[in-house]
Design a protein that fits this description.
39% of the residues lie in helices and 12% in strands. It is of the alpha+beta class. Bound molecules: adenosine monophosphate and magnesium ion (MG). The site of magnesium ion (MG) has 3 residues, from loops.
C-alpha cells in the first residue's frame, strides 16, 4: 500500500465525495420534504398545549412542541457541505438561502415535519437527577435520503419545552461553534458521533449567561445548531421509564428502537432484549475506545449524555488533550475528576450497569442472568478495545504479551515530559524508526523532542523496535498505517477559542476554515501550519477549561 505520508492538501479541495452525489442533490430547499408521518409518530407523544411550561411528562416518549424561532437579523455562521449532501441530499448552496437559514432558526418547517422534544432522565455526576429531556432541542422530522438512510435533524437552542426546567431554551454562539466543529471533526477522526449540518446566529436575540459562574452574567447572542442523528435516544430515555414505573411503555420503546435501529437483531428473537443490551454496550465501548485514541474527553458523561446508538452526543465542556496527562478534566464543574480522560471507559461501564438495572422491568429472570453474564465481560472487552486502538496508533496489528506496558510506558513518558498527545503519535509516524534516537532528526519534531528528554526514552525505543521486528512490519507500511490513524489536527480548545473570538465579531472565516480542515484531519495543510495548528499550543491556552454554561 502506497499512501502519502504528508500530503499538502489544497485548502478548499471539494473533491470526489460530493461530485458522486451531485446528480441527485436538491437545489431548491422548498422541495426538500420529510417522510410523513415520521416513524417516531408510532410512539406516544404528549400533546399538552401549554408546551413551554416545565412539567413532569407521563406516559409519553416525546412532547409535541413547536419551535420558538430565533428573532432578529439572522446570519449563517457555517454549514457542513458533507452533512447536507451526504445525509440530506441537499446541494450545499442551499445553505446560503433565506429558507434554509429560517429552517435552522426554527422559523420554517419542511413539509411532513413533526416537531417534538424527547423525554429522558439521567444520572448526573453519579446521582439520579430525574426528568431532564430536551430542554432546548426540537427534533423536526425524519428524512429518508437517496441511499435509503433515515436521518433526524434536531435544532439545539430553538426555544423552551416542557423539559426546560430553569433554562431559557437557548444556546449561545460560543457553545454552538464548539458543538458544530467537534461533531464534524469527530466524524472524520473516526469517532461515532452525531453530526452537525449548520449553525445560525442572531444579531439581536440576546440571552443572559454567566460564562465562568463568577456572578458576572452578561448578554450573549443566541444561536441554533442543526444537529443530525439516526435517532436521539439516550440511556436516560429508558431510565426515566424505570424510575416512573412505566414498564409497558419501556417495552414499546425498546421494541421500536430494535426494529428501527438495530437491524442485526431479530424482532422475534426471545432474547432480543439481551442482544440489544449487548449491542448497546459494545457500541458504546467501541466508541469510548475511539475517544481514547484521539485524546477526546467528553466532560459530562452523565447517562443522559450517552446515546443508545453508541454515538458521541452533547458536546459541551469537552476537550482534546494537548500535553498529555491521564487525568485531564476539561470541565470546570467536575471538581472530583469523575469524568477525567483516563476514567472514561470505567464511567461508560458504570453507566451501562445503571442501564442494565433500568431494563429489569421488562426482563425475565433468565434474561437478567444473561445480562449479568454479559456485564461480566464488558471490562475485558473495553480494555482490549482501548489497547487495540493504541497499538494501531503505534503501527502494530495484533496484541502480544507486553504490549499493554509498551503503551502505558510511552504514555507515562509523555506525561513526565509534558509532550503533546496528538503530535507525539503523529511525529512517531513522520520519522524513520531508526532515527528515534537521532538528536538532529528529533529536534525537527517538537513534541518527540520533549519525550526524548525522559531518561528511559532510549530503552522504550529499543523495545518498540524489537516489537515492530516481531510483527515484521516494513517501515513504509508502519508509517503509512500510523499516518492514517494519527491525526495532524484535532479541535483543540485554544483553536476553538480563537475562532469563537472572531465569530463574536461576525468574522466566521476561521470557523469555516476549521470546519473545512477537520474534513481531512490526517493530512498536513499549509494554511493550518501557518496558523500553528500542529505546533506547540500557545502559553495562554495552558490549562484552559470550560464551564457548562452554554
Ligand atoms: P446538558 O448539560 O447540555 O447535557 O443539559 C442537561 C439538561 O439541561 C438537558 O435536559 C438540557 O436540555 C437542559 N438544558 C441545558 N441548557 C438549557 C437551557 N438553556 N434551557 C433549557 N434547558 C437546558
Ligand atoms: Mg445533555
Amino acid at each position: 500500500m502506497k499512501r502519502a505520508f504528508c500530503v499538502f492538501a489544497a485548502l478548499y479541495d471539494h473533491s470526489a465525495p460530493q461530485a458522486v452525489n451531485k446528480m441527485k442533490l436538491i437545489s431548491n430547499f422548498k422541495e426538500w420534504k420529510f417522510k410523513s408521518p415520521p416513524s417516531y409518530a408510532e410512539l406516544p407523544i404528549d400533546e399538552n398545549p401549554a408546551y413551554n411550561e416545565p412539567v413532569a411528562v407521563k406516559n409519553a416518549v416525546f412532547s409535541k412542541v413547536p419551535t420558538e424561532p430565533l428573532t432578529g437579523n439572522l446570519r449563517l455562521v457555517c454549514a457542513s457541505e458533507d452533512a447536507l449532501a451526504d445525509l440530506f441530499d441537499l446541494d450545499p448552496q442551499v445553505a446560503e438561502t433565506e429558507e434554509f437559514i429560517n429552517f435552522v432558526a426554527g422559523k420554517y418547517l419542511p413539509e411532513g415535519g413533526l416537531t417534538v422534544s424527547h423525554r429522558y432522565g439521567g444520572y448526573q455526576f453519579g446521582f439520579w437527577a430525574d426528568q431532564l429531556g430536551d430542554g432546548r432541542a426540537h427534533i423536526l422530522g425524519e428524512y429518508v435520503n437517496s441511499k435509503g438512510e433515515s436521518w433526524q435533524p434536531q435544532l439545539k437552542g430553538s426555544g423552551e419545552t416542557p423539559y426546560s426546567r430553569f433554562g431559557d431554551g437557548r444556546a449561545v454562539l460560543r457553545s454552538s461553534v464548539r458543538e458544530m466543529l467537534a461533531s464534524e471533526a469527530a466524524h472524520y477522526l473516526g469517532v461515532p458521533t452525531t453530526r452537525a449540518a449548520a449553525l445560525v446566529v442572531s444579531d439581536d436575540h440576546k440571552v443572559w449567561r454567566d460564562k465562568s459562574y463568577s456572578g458576572a452574567a452578561r448578554q450573549e447572542r443566541a444561536a441554533v445548531v442543526a444537529r443530525v442523528c439516526r435517532a436521539w435516544y439516550r440511556l436516560g430515555s429508558i431510565e426515566i421509564l424505570d424510575k416512573r414505573r412505566e414498564p409497558a411503555l419501556m417495552r414499546t420503546l425498546v421494541e421500536f428502537i430494535i426494529k428501527h435501529h438495530f437491524p442485526s437483531i431479530d424482532v422475534e428473537d426471545e432474547d432480543r432484549f439481551v442482544k440489544w443490551y449487548t449491542e448497546v454496550a459494545h457500541r458504546n465501548l467501541d466508541m469510548v475506545a475511539t475517544w481514547q485514541g484521539v485524546g477526546f474527553t467528553h466532560g459530562v458523561l452523565n447517562t443522559d449524555n450517552v446515546s443508545v446508538l453508541g454515538v458521541t452526543i452533547d458536546y459541551g465542556p469537552y476537550g482534546f488533550i494537548d500535553h498529555y496527562y491521564e487525568s485531564y478534566v476539561p470541565n470546570t464543574s467536575d471538581d472530583m475528576g469523575r469524568y477525567a480522560f483516563n476514567r472514561q471507559p470505567q464511567i461508560l461501564l458504570w453507566n451501562l450497569e445503571k442501564f442494565a438495572l433500568a431494563l429489569e422491568p421488562i426482563l425475565s429472570a433468565d434474561q437478567k442472568d444473561k445480562i449479568k453474564e454479559v456485564r461480566s465481560t464488558l471490562e475485558e472487552y473495553v480494555t482490549k478495545k482501548v489497547l487495540e486502538t493504541y497499538l494501531l496508533k503505534l503501527g502494530l496489528k495484533e496484541i502480544q504479551d507486553g504490549d499493554a506496558s509498551l503503551v502505558e510506558d510511552l504514555l507515562r513518558l509523555m506525561q513526565d515530559t509534558m509532550a503533546d498527545f496528538t503530535c507525539t503519535f503523529r511525529q512517531l509516524a513522520e520519522i524513520d524508526v531508526k532515527d528515534l534516537d537521532n538528536t538532529t532528526v528529533l529536534e525537527t519534531k517538537w513534541s518527540l523532542n520533549k519525550v526524548r528528554e525522559a531518561k528511559s526514552w532510549g530503552a522504550w525505543v529499543d523495545r518498540y523496535r524489537a516489537r515492530l521486528a516481531k510483527e515484521n512490519v516494513s517501515e513504509e507500511e508502519r508509517r503509512a498505517r500510523m499516518c492514517a490513524v494519527n491525526p495532524v489536527y484535532v479541535p483543540r480548545n485554544w483553536m476553538l477559542q480563537d475562532a469563537i473570538a472572531d465569530a463574536e465579531k461576525n468574522d466566521f472565516q476561521k470557523v469555516r476554515f476549521l470546519l473545512e480542515l477537520f474534513r481531512k484531519p490526517f493530512e498536513v495543510n499549509e494554511e493550518a501550519e501557518k496558523l500553528g495548528y500542529s505546533a506547540q499550543p500557545p502559553s495562554w491556552s495552558y490549562g484552559l477549561k470550560l464551564s457548562c454554561s452554554s
